[in-house]
Write a structure and sequence with these properties.
The structure holds four protein chains of four kinds. Chain A is an all-alpha fold. Chain A is about 80% helix and about 0% strand. Chain A has one domain: ABC transporter involved in vitamin B12 uptake, BtuC. Chain A contains 15 helices and four strands. Chain A is globular. Chain D has helices at about 20-35, 45-60, 75-85, 105-125, 140-155, 175-185, 200-210, 230-235, 250-265, 300-305, and strands spanning about 5-10, 35-40, 65, 90, 100-105, 130-135, 160-170, 190-195, 220-225, 240-245, 270-275, 275-280, 290, 295-300. In chain D, helix 4 (about 105-125) runs parallel beside helix 5 (about 140-155). The chains are: A mainly alpha, B mainly alpha, C alpha/beta, D alpha/beta. The complex binds adenosine-5'-triphosphate (2 copies) and magnesium ion (2 copies).
């Protein structure tokens, strides 16, 4: 009797504290705190920051990097990388708009865009996973090739949406119930789906295993090449979806769209705690990384800070956030 | 790397070369040069060769540092922004002091300081070097406009400043001499000195290196500083070539450098790579770039062709190595 | 489906023999690893595989596991000729392997690692984490291993990781279970538990392959012994036909006169290492001891007693909280291996792969890492001298490698260990700390390493040896320190030491 | 007196470029005169960032929005959104489908007039031969128009003028220098270098000098006149004889005026032309600018006296 009493007494208060400790052990907590700190700071510093309109704006803006970031996150967790996503996100606009102009159908345009993304993913994945060429090299190559092909095809001119389709305008610029923008909706749905996949589906765990230690994964009977190949395809498809949203936001296929996008996304993914060595990190972290960078850009703008100072501040905050995360990890 | 990985016996030169992972690149380079020459004789005119070498020298100088950095297991994406800033500093200090020497020194040292900053952030704060140097790139891009809103002109029209890039030593342009000297020093350091060995060791297994009495942080810091100094030197040469300090220069330069280094076979995971490979990588990329203009091809191919070549060369090397392993 | 199946009821109806390999050949660049090797496994029997380091044991096992493809020969499983093209094929055939190198995902929990081959899923295909945790705990309880299923594998010491590996092989149905040196970092207690499990597996009709360098274990557990040497099969005999000596004779082709040679005299009086009041944040509490020139000081302890941590602290690798370390009268600045090495103290780590080997680099550079300055003039490496010095060690230690240029990742575990030992011996040291120096090393090499340690002590070095092997401890040490929970609980001279006294102190 | 907007937001294309710095300077000067608060955001050449910056301005509640499009197609939805919100929008630089008004120079005309002057110079100094290396930028319609205009203007004086090299110099000096060096090696008979901006002409000229050629018999024509660089080059480089001045300050000034008019619902033309003119010879610039150390000051009287064209000869629609 006394024994069981003492047991329950120990178990009672232990639960919440255990839970809290578990939460603090997670690497995302530092990011979450950084994000909250940023939001509090900007809310105090600028009147126009914490308005419904601005917050929904930022979430909409963040969603492009978020969608692509999920894909890159999945791929980096599997131990590979893709730097061609910026070129691809820009390139998918072309089949999208060209097919739309030809057929008048948004659906066919989107199908064309996704088909292009699929092809790029298949080629990247084939060369990197099956042939075994280092993925940075492969995707650096496709980054140049895709962008160059876009320039060649368009003669370095944007392709306008001649029919001015309302549905095309809406997917990137419209809002559900006037509050939440469609891109944000897409990002939230995809994020939830992929967080579930990574945590609770065997395939998600295979991605972690393959990235964490490919040799071990092979010994456990995984088809490592296939898993990585699929990760490439996922990454390209998500970059393609991001590119479709971008294209709608721009109302056209712009040949320079997505320039430098890969840097932003990879920076957000790494900021989010995903290790470039593979096997470590979470998509929740990626989402936080993207949000931090988006809120930072927006907030600094709201404070009317000059571009040059914005760049300097963003750089310093990135270093501070990652260093903080690292110090916390070491203190553990 | 491969020279070092060779079995202890030192075979005949031809044998060693054939075994070497640079053979694919060398063959590629030769094919490219012959191909372009056949369709456009201007390719091997003295003027063009000099123009190519001058361009190569800029990439090679930074590439030498970047190769060492990748071997040590780190990377620096801030070199493009750093070289723009260094060029402005070099020009500005030249203007203010009237001394080209002081200006040059200031530019190079500035680059070194950037390298020191990167190195400290990476080794002390333990920030992943990819993200740390992306951040530094942003800081520098912003910082250079806080430093100067406009391109810094060669106010006193000092000819010595432009001579740094357009001068000759005998028939050879100065930047090429500088690049050759940098390359030779880096090559010897990496290949024949204890320092070079430790750089490989740190990249291959930092814990083992530490247990053996090395300080991985110090070594990495050193390589960051060297890379920074070389970026500063390149910034100086570029500023001299343009006769101005241009705050917007160097956009995308880091990608060219990294593309050349990995084309040369250096591993991103650390512990593997050679400077000879980097040299060939630089030459191939710049010959392609030049050849497309000489052949009057569509300039958009200047993106597509290198993209294909990087993948192709890596693939061929892979095939060669797999055949070797059999 | 899970643990219960393997342990408690026969998994697969068995046919005689369970598996037959004939004429197996395997060549690596520069090495003929296996040549015409045959192996027949019978259900319900434990088949031991023995041989020197580099004899080809792991290679044979990897072919059985589908990791490597055989160049020649045939594999028949249950009478049917089978091609094992990938680990997946082997797993499907019910072949479960505990590999010599630990094969776990360090970021995953223990429980997840155990079910990594096939996650239990619920109706909609989601992983059932509850089942995983529950079954893993149940499995450990059944085996008797004491590992926290919720711990992250990367946080665990090697020994616990090894238990996880073993548990994983038992989590699913199996018809052949292969263990490649599973006990190299287990305590005697755990070895006993493992043997219990193996006997149970055998009684269920499962064929077990067992690789170990520990002769006693072979005599205890094996039914049949196959000995490999230089990639060829030397003999296959029932264990009863072997004696210690005959087994060693088969393995190394010669006899070992004395496993623990002793050429050194009494230790000198000069204290080379002095540790006073050493504590660290994590484990060590007020550790003090001295080691003298010319002696071997053996540290014994159960797993997690703190020996590895002590080793890392005294060479300056890990930070310390309080305390003082002096090497030959000079204070060692803590958390600074540079002064440690220059004062003449070096550590042979227990974790070869992550703290010792530069896997991608050749043998040459792995060997000369700590002593490069000796071959350098004005910072330039004299490669000729370097090569001849390394070659001398390769010859002396009989390191099996096609050349100094071979990447070290291609060497067998034992040979890798020899290279790492050479790394330190090439540099003249005053003190060498060896942490589990003979983990995964064959008897022949072991006796060489023991001889070496003895010689080093005779030359005036202080040798600090962390070991879990009682014979090694008793055979080699001049004095013995026993650790438990981060403290030294007893110190005794060899003459006073008995197994009982030591174990008592270790449990305290 | 017209009512003044309280706050104007300007989303620029590339704030760190000297051209835009001077546009912003002109805007700031004018806004200050009128007591208007001006806020500037930089798209930094990123189309997506431009849309975000404009969105931020909209949610922040500016009274008028001015945009220099990174790409004119890419801001079509923005124009629509501004209309839906009733936010007056002025475009700078390039026309956009559905826009109300735009302040811009005539790029084609700017190149054209410089071309005519170059032709005259070539007749006098280059023996009537004109072999042009165009250090261009196909990426932007504006810069393509300049190059086309230059060649057309040149041909009015020298009908058999040819463009022997049409290069993509990226609009920045280092890339311009690199590809110019290759082009010069390919063709040794080039005698006119045309740059679509000052960085491009500078890159071309530096490549020329680096190849060890003498500047005798060479003409360099720059475009923009945005910083100190062209003044420096006109002062010191014998071949740098013509600069097509585009007066960025004036563009900024005019854009603010247009914004005020829109705010007051006044009638404005679709294209408000900002003047340009070629500046010739080493002293040509002194009429419009004075330099003190590293600051240059615009001479407003002289610039305001330059008459803008009623209508551009050619626009992006003609490409
Ligand atoms: N991937 C590889 N590439 C090249 N050589 C290899 C490779 N794997 C093993 N070898 C070589 O094959 C031989 C047999 O090695 P193996 O690992 O089978 O030995 P082992 O009997 O398990 O030794 P140990 O007792 O040390 O573990 C060794 O000479 C080794 O160097
Ligand atoms: N429960 C634990 N959780 C995390 N890390 C542990 C734990 N126990 C031990 N370790 C780590 O494992 C390593 C080895 O442990 P330690 O030095 O305590 O044991 P040891 O006496 O050398 O025993 P052995 O090497 O046989 O495991 C150390 O680096 C220690 O930090
Ligand atoms: Mg083995
Ligand atoms: Mg230990």
């Amino acid at each position: 009797m006394p024994q069981s009493l003492s047991l329950s007494a120990a178990a009672g208060p232990k639960r919440p504290s255990e839970w809290l400790r578990a939460l603090f052990r997670r690497n995302e907590i530092a990011l979450l705190l950084s994000l909250v700190a940023l939001i509090v700071f900007f809310s105090l510093a600028s009147d126009s920051f914490l308005t419904t309109r601005n917050i929904t704006n930022v979430l909409g803006q963040a969603s492009l990097a978020m969608v692509a970031g999920i894909g890159v996150g999945v791929l980096v967790i599997s131990g590979e990388i893709d730097v061609s996503i910026g070129s691809l996100a820009g390139a998918v606009g072309i089949p999208l708009v060209v097919i739309m102009n030809m057929t008048g159908s948004l659906e066919l345009g989107i199908a064309g865009a996704l088909l292009l993304a699929l092809c790029v993913g298949v080629v990247n994945g084939f060369l990197a996973a099956y042939i075994g060429i280092n993925s940075l090299i492969v995707t650096l190559g496709s980054m140049f090739v895709i962008r160059g092909a876009v320039y060649l095809y368009t003669g370095q001119k944007a392709i306008p949406d001649d029919l001015m389709l309302e549905s095309f305008y809406q997917i990137g610029n419209g809002r559900l119930f006037g509050a939440i923008s469609y891109p944000a909706l897409v990002a939230i749905v995809l994020l939830s789906a992929f967080i579930y996949l990574m945590r609770h589906r065997p395939f998600g765990r295979k991605l972690y295993a393959v990235g964490g230690n490919p040799e071990v994964a092979r010994l456990a009977g995984y088809d490592v090449k296939r898993v990585k190949f699929i990760a490439f395809v996922i990454c390209s498809l998500l970059a393609g979806i991001s590119g479709i949203l971008l294209s709608s936001r721009l109302g056209s296929a712009v040949h320079v769209a997505g320039l430098g996008f890969e840097f932003q996304v990879v920076a957000a993914v790494v900021l989010g705690g995903v290790s470039l060595a593979g096997g470590i990190g979470s998509l929740f972290g990626v989402a936080l990384g993207v949000l931090i960078l988006s809120f930072l850009a927006n907030g600094l703008g709201m404070l009317n800070i000059a571009t040059e100072w914005q760049l300097v501040t963003t750089g310093l905050i990135i270093i501070a956030a990652v260093a903080f995360d690292e110090l916390k990890r070491r203190a553990k | 790397m491969s020279e070092i990985t060779q079995p202890a016996k030192s075979g005949p030169v031809a044998g060693r070369l054939a075994n070497n992972s640079q053979i694919v690149l060398l063959a590629l380079l030769v094919v490219l040069c012959i191909g372009i020459s056949l369709s456009a004789a201007q390719f091997y005119s003295v003027e063009n060769v000099i123009a190519i070498l001058r361009q190569c020298s800029l990439v090679l100088i930074v590439g030498a540092g970047m190769t060492m950095l990748l071997i040590a297991g780190e990377v620096d994406l801030s070199v493009g922004a750093s070289l723009a800033f260094s060029g402005c500093v070099a020009m500005d200090v030249t203007n203010k002091t009237g001394s080209v020497f002081l200006g040059a020194l200031a530019g190079i040292l500035f680059g070194g300081l950037v390298g020191l900053f990167n190195g400290l952030v990476v080794t002390r704060l333990k920030v992943n070097s990819l993200i740390a140097t992306i951040a530094t790139m942003m800081i520098l891009q912003g910082g250079v406009f806080l430093y100067t809103r406009e391109a810094v002109q060669n106010k006193h029209q000092q000819p010595a400043f432009t001579d740094i890039s357009t001068g000759y030593l005998g028939p050879i342009p100065l930047p090429v001499i500088i690049a050759a000297a940098v390359f030779a020093c880096a090559y010897v350091a990496l290949r024949y000195t204890t320092l070079g060995r430790y750089i490989y060791a740190v990249g291959a297994n930092a814990k083992a290196a530490r247990l053996s009495g090395r300080r991985p942080e110090q070594l990495k810091l050193l390589v960051f500083v060297v890379t920074g100094l070389l970026a500063g030197l390149t910034g100086l040469i570029l500023a001299s070539l343009m006769n101005t300090g241009q705050p917007t220069a160097g956009r995308g330069f880091e990608l060219t450098v990294i593309a050349a280094v990995i084309l040369g076979g250096t591993s991103l995971l650390g512990g593997r790579g050679t400077l000879l490979g980097t040299l060939l990588g630089v030459l191939i990329l710049k010959v392609i770039d030049n050849g497309i203009i000489i052949l009057r091809w569509d300039q958009n191919l200047q993106m597509i062709v290198p993209g294909v070549v990087i993948v192709l060369a890596t693939y061929l090397d892979l095939v060669r190595r797999r055949a070797d392993a059999r | 489906m899970h643990a219960d199946a393997t342990i408690d009821e026969p998994a697969v109806a068995t046919i005689d023999p369970a598996m037959e390999m004939t004429g197996i050949g395997k060549r690596f660049p520069g090495v003929l690893a296996l040549e015409n090797v045959g192996l027949t496994l019978e259900p319900g029997k434990v088949h031991a595989l023995m041989g020197e380091n580099g004899a080809g044991k792991s290679t044979l096992i990897k072919i059985l596991a589908g990791v490597y493809q055989k160049d020649a020969g045939a594999i028949r499983i249950g009478g049917v000729e089978t091609d094992l093209r990938s680990p997946r094929d082997a797993l499907r055939q019910g072949i479960k392997v505990v590999f010599q190198e630990i094969a776990l995902i360090s970021e995953f929990t223990v429980a997840e690692n155990i079910f990594i081959e096939e996650y239990p899923v619920n109706g909609v295909g989601s992983i059932s984490w509850k089942t995983i945790r529950r079954d893993a705990a149940a499995l450990f309880e059944r085996i008797g291993f004491n590992v926290d299923p919720a711990a992250k594998v990367g946080d665990l010491p090697v020994s616990q990781q090894q238990m996880v590996e073993i548990a994983r092989a038992l989590a699913h149905e199996a018809r052949i279970v292969v263990m490649d040196e599973p006990t190299s970092s287990l305590t005697p207690n755990e070895v006993a538990l493992l043997f219990g499990v193996i006997r149970r597996l055998a009684s269920l009709g499962i064929a077990v392959v067992y690789v170990s360098h520990k002769l006693d274990e072979i005599f205890e557990i094996a039914d049949t012994v196959t000995v490999l040497r230089d990639g060829r099969r030397i003999s296959t005999k029932p264990v009863g036909e072997h004696t210690h000596d005959s087994l060693i004779q088969d393995m190394i082709g010669r006899r070992i006169e004395n496993l623990f040679p002793r050429s050194r005299g009494v230790a000198r009086d000069d204290v080379v290492v002095k540790v006073e009041g050493l504590s660290t944040d994590s484990k060590l509490k007020d550790v003090s001891f001295e080691a003298r020139a010319g002696e071997v000081l053996g540290f014994f302890g159960l797993m997690g007693a703190g020996r590895t941590e002590l080793a890392k602290a005294i060479v300056g690798y890990d930070p310390i909280k309080t305390g003082r370390i002096t090497i030959a009268g000079q204070p060692l600045s803590p958390h600074n291996t540079r002064t440690g090495v220059s004062l003449g103290i070096g550590l042979l780590s227990e974790d070869r792969k992550t703290e010792g080997l530069m896997l991608e680099l050749p043998v040459l550079q792995n060997a000369s890492l700590a002593s490069l300055e000796q071959f350098a003039r004005a910072g330039f490496v004299d490669e000729k001298r370097e090569k001849s010095a390394v070659q001398a060690f390769v010859d002396r230690f009989r390191i099996k490698t096609p050349g100094l240029g071979q990447q070290i990742k291609n060497l067998s575990g034992g040979n890798q260990q020899k290279v790492l030992l050479a790394r330190w011996l090439m540099r003249g040291l005053k003190v060498i700390v060896v942490d589990e120096p003979t983990r995964g090393i064959d008897v022949g090499a072991k006796s060489e390493i023991f001889a070496l340690i003895d010689q080093l002590a005779a030359q005036g070095l202080a040798v600090i040896m962390m070991t879990s092997e009682m014979p090694e401890l008793l055979g080699l040490s001049d004095r013995i320190a026993v650790m438990a929970e981060g403290r030294i609980t007893a110190t005794m001279s060899r003459d006073d030491a008995t197994q009982e006294k030591i174990l008592n102190a270790a449990i305290a | 007196a017209a009512e003044m907007p309280k706050k104007i937001g300007y989303v620029t294309n590339y704030a760190t470029h000297e051209w835009y710095q001077n546009v912003i300077k002109g805007m700031q000067d004018r806004a200050q005169q009128l007591g208007i608060e001006l806020e500037v955001r930089d798209a930094n050449l990123d189309v997506n960032k431009q849309v975000s910056a404009a969105e931020d301005f909209m949610s922040r509640g500016v009274d008028v929005l001015i945009i220099t499009p990174v790409n004119e197609e890419g801001v079509v939805p923005l124009v629509r959104r501004a209309k839906e919100e009733g936010l007056p929008l002025v475009l700078e630089g390039n026309p956009v489908k559905g826009m109300t008004t735009m302040v811009a120079i005539c790029d084609y005309d700017t190149g054209y007039h410089a071309g005519v002057e170059a032709g005259k110079y070539a007749k006098g100094h280059l023996g009537g031969v004109a072999k042009v290396m165009n250090v261009g930028l196909p990426l932007l319609s504006a810069t393509v128009l300049r190059s086309n205009g230059f060649m057309d203007g040149l041909k009015t004086e020298i009908p058999d003028a040819t463009m022997v090299h049409d290069l993509d110099g990226g609009g920045n000096p280092d890339r311009a220098l690199e590809i110019s060096a290759a082009a010069l090696a390919q063709n040794s008979d080039i005698n006119i270098i045309y740059g679509i901006n000052d960085s491009s002409s500078q890159g071309g000229l530096q490549a020329w000098k680096a190849s060890g050629r003498s500047q005798d018999g060479l003409l360099v024509v720059g475009t923009g006149g945005e910083g100190l660089g062209f003044i420096n080059m006109m002062n010191t480089e014998p071949s740098y004889q013509i600069e097509a001045a585009m007066f960025p300050e004036k563009v900024g000034f005019t854009a603010i005026d247009a914004a005020v008019k829109l705010f007051n619902d006044e009638e404005v033309p679709q294209h408000i032309v900002s003047p340009t003119t070629p500046m010739i010879g080493s002293d040509g610039w002194k009429q419009y600018y004075s330099v003190d150390g590293t600051t240059r000051t615009i001479n407003w009287d002289a610039v305001n006296a330059v008459q803008p064209a009623e209508q551009c000869m050619k626009t992006a629609a003609d490409l």
